[in-house]
Amino acid sequence: MEKLELVFMPSIGISHLVSSIEFAKRITERDSRVWVTVLMMSPLQPTKDLNLVYSHSKIRFVDLPQVDSPSYDCRKTPGTNMCAFVENHSSHVKHALTQLASNSATGLVLVLDLFCLSMIDVANELGIPSYLFLTTGTFFLGAMLYLVPHDESTGTVFELSCPELTIPSFTNPVPSRVLPDSFLDKAGGYAAFAKLGKRFKEVKGIVVNSFSDLEAFGLSSVSDGENPPVYPVGPILKLNSGSDPIEKDPIISWLDEQPPSSVVFLCFGSMGSLSAPQVREIACGLEQSGYRPGDESKIVTAEKIKEVIRRAMEDDGGVRERMKEMRGKSRKAVMDGGSSFNSCGRLIEDMINNYQRCHVSDTS
């Protein structure tokens, strides 16, 4: 096999997309045989812009045809609606993989985002091994692995009143309030995540954004032989955006044109949103608070926040020393010979071996 083509399928959240691309850059630099194709679902950033920003000779972006989105149900969690949206792309993903597989000199592996696990069925149909890429560390992985037996034994949503839970990747029992919101959601979120969790064991391996020195206990707990092998390849970060040639969205241009301190900007993450009535309620609350732009007496400034953090760090020098130590370990993890560097190498070899097994079984 001359070339290993990894086909990434990130979900539509920008944070998932950025993490996927950063991982793609790292794994292509790790081995000269590895190339990456990223399948893009609308409304992700157009590929012409991404090819401009992420100019990389071994990474390309392919737009999947636009599909009719299922009717959005505001009563359900964003993840529930996203899974339904992803499933509508099955035929287009199959077509793209079939075209890529036509090159006999290329091995093909599918790397799926959490919300794209329904594409395992497409990969299995085509004899392509699939892997799961989690943008999180092992805490979330352990929680998902804990969710499955809980659902099979009780079939009930977690409640805030639940006793403390013994989750594999957590050193100590934890209250249910630390779980992702979807685990406590009775409007479809719990059911959607339980369904996703049950598919974890169908992939050939699970890639996590962590490293061994950071989550030694968590990695050990999820690597019990009953789950697919876990590969820590982190930390995967994009701390500096640099110059961004992507054309600004009109709303960003409008914000830039407003007078300083005249706009209150509320951000809820790539999957968060508020309805129009909720936005109006926030506006009413701001009006009634008596706050006016430029009135700094009623807001906490960045300088004050920095001062509080500085004092807290000075009060506990041990925390600061541990952070400094972990910062050094995180850098070493991704360097040549580091734990994540070596884990990435094992992942590539595992991908090649699994592709060859599938290929041999198809030709025999």
UniProtKB/TrEMBL annotation:
Annotated SUPFAM superfamilies: UDP-Glycosyltransferase/glycogen phosphorylase
Gene Ontology terms for molecular function: UDP-glucosyltransferase activity
Organism: Dillenia turbinata
Gene3D superfamilies: Glycogen Phosphorylase B (3.40.50.2000)
Protein name: Uncharacterized protein
Superkingdom of origin: Eukaryota
